[in-house]
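Quick board copy: two proteins, each given as sequence then tokens.
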Amino acid sequence: MENGMSVILYEKMPDGSLNAIEERVWSAIMVASLEHVNYLVVGGREFETVEGRLNVDEGKLELLLVPMRTE
């Protein structure tokens, strides 16, 4: 992972479907920080990380996110 790892962020929609928010390469430090965080800010929106899956076939880390309500 010296050049980073491709990470795909999926938003879980209210109907249960998944919406791919973005895919980009994360540094090893960013991937390691997932051990310490529960929330991500992407495009100015805050999401809670629900679960992650390492897709070995594609060499990608997939994260499932749910949006935080902003009142």
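And the next:
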Amino acid sequence: MRSLLTHLDRRTFHLIASREWPGAQRVLPRLTRSANHGLLWFGLAAGAAALGGRPMRRAALRGVASLAVASATVNTLGKRSVRRERPLLDTVPVIRQLHRQPITSSFPSGHAASAVAFATGVAFENKWWGLALAPVAASVAFSRVYTGVHYPGDVLAGAALGAGAAFAVRGFAPTRAQLAPPARPRADAPALPGGRGLVVVANQASGQRTGGPRPDRAEEVHGVLPQAEVVVCGEQDGEPLDKVLEDAAERARTLGGALGVLGGDGTVNAAAEVALRHGLPLAVLPGGTLNHFAYDLGIETYAEAARAVETGEAVAVDVARFRAEPHPEARHFLNTFSIGAYPELVRIRERWAGKIGAWPAGVLAAWEVLRTAEPLTLKINGERRAVWLLFVGNCQYRGLGFAPVRRHDLADGVLDVRVVHGGRLARTRLLAAALTGTPRSSPVLGEARLSRLRISGLPEGTTLAFDGEVTPAPAELTLDKHKEALTVYRLLPE
């Protein structure tokens, strides 16, 4: 059986080598050289990370991780386990042959493994980009036979190893689709075909990190919801955001529809307060820089938000509140509340995460903050403490203990409270815990899941941050949860 397979493999190689392939002579040798050492795939990943949004960066990272696993498997196990000579080049036209012939074992093909691993890894995150890459990956794999450096069996084995590497990475690090937010509790919301009855407030200033041309926000919304009403704000000398949101909510109630918002987390926070007050469902179109709430909700594109609006698919999510004692008026936050150095920590982490990875960026951020910050003395539930930072999340966050990054459940009924304590050698002990990957076991870090939290004794001049907004902090604060208070459109699993 083995000799038969070997015979078929060699025969297929000679058929490919002796056949004339129109147009291939100009493309395939160059393509196979561009894929040496994974350079082609690294270049595509870098371009996607630089020009695409968060979904594209995540797809690029998964593709590179899959490629790395495939390459390591081929070079440490594959080629060392099976020693196979490279094909003879007698039947391969000289013009196709590579200037530098590889000297390692022919089995399996490392180029095919890397190509399939990268394309499959990308497809797990973004199926359309994965489909676009499939012909390129197949061409690279075929080019190894075309140029005479591999038998077809080597390429098929490499492709199988590459696909297996992508599946292994997905098993170790599940995709967002595998870890989609729970589609509960489901909530009633009107289906609005084409967006009819939806009034969207689009913040023109959101997501503008550079001085480039500003997108036409109304055109963006009408591209996915052509019948929605759009009010653009954020321009100079325009009405304040809260006034625009109030007018939009009144209009949505008249239409029997819903309130929509296109902007970043601060804009979404303001819209959520208005939607709560008017009893309206909220449609979130991620148009900011980070879009934490939209992404944790499972909405990454305008198209996803539009499909949910048109079908009426929605869930109820928790809203966290804080109020200054003894005043009854409450402010709300959908993501995070913090006192102390946390806003600076997040800023540093976000700046470096895309360049060096989330874990190293968290360590760098912790070091920078602890090196420059001074502890703040306050009372937490009546107990006096010295802290560098106090973080409170609306629902439980995942990630490093001192730098949580995302949530899985937006209706779990808890406040995620994390405190970095001051004290003797606190900086050194926390940094050591971060470097060893055990921040949660450090006595410097305190964590709790609570439904209510009281903060008092805040020094004058202290500031607090919530959902990207910064404001002076009162002397006493109470935080609690408004469970399943806000109805938000999101796609539900089939």
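Board note added afterward: The two ends are 45 Å apart (CA to CA).
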